[in-house]
Amino acid sequence: MRRLLVLLVSTAMLPLVACGHFVLTPGSPSSPTPSPTVPPVISITEADQGRTLQIVTGQEIDVVLHGQPGPLVWHSLRSSDPSVLAPEVNSAATAMQGVLLGAFRALKPGHAQITAVSGPICPPGAMCPMVAERLFVVDVIVTR
Questions:
Q1: In whole angstroms, what is the distance from residue 39 CA to residue 56 CA?
Q2: Is 53 within the bounds of a domain?
Q3: Contact of 61 with 53, CB cutoff 8 Å
């Protein structure tokens, strides 16, 4: 009877151990340690112009810039240092006309600026209205 019980327990444990899902070493806790939490995504808009953000490595910043009435549209959204704050591609993001969407992920500690320009976009050789452009700048300090 004892052999049958040992055989049943061994057979039941074999798939768990073989797949690496259940391994206990002497002195190890029986429950897994929780993984570090992912920091929240920060969303910024044109209202954040001139602001300084402090974020941690791995954190994401989403940018949503709304156009103004008239011929001005936001364009040229970039990071001043992509090695610190890299652009992220979100193929599922869809913006309505006049809205610029972007996202950036902090890769390593350092400093970068997120910038964009609001101005007319005119075809080559066409007359462009004499309108002052607006500059959007947010400073980002990445720690850890």
A1: 8
A2: yes
A3: yes
Which pTM was predicted?
A: 0.69
Q: In this structure, which long-range contacts are made by residues 87-90, counting pairs with CB atoms below 8 Å and at least 24 apart in sequence?
A: 88/60
Rounded CA separation 116/1 (Å) = 76
Chunked in runs of 10, what are the mean pLDDT values of the chain (144 residues)?
A: 41 41 44 66 96 96 87 89 94 77 96 93 81 90 94
Residue 13, SS3 per DSSP: helix
CATH number for the domain spanning 74: value is 2.60.40.2020
Structure tokens belonging to residue 23: 């391994």
Which range of residues forms the domain containing residue 112? 42-122+129-143
**Contact, 53 vs 138, CB < 8 A?**
yes
Residue 96 lies in a domain: yes
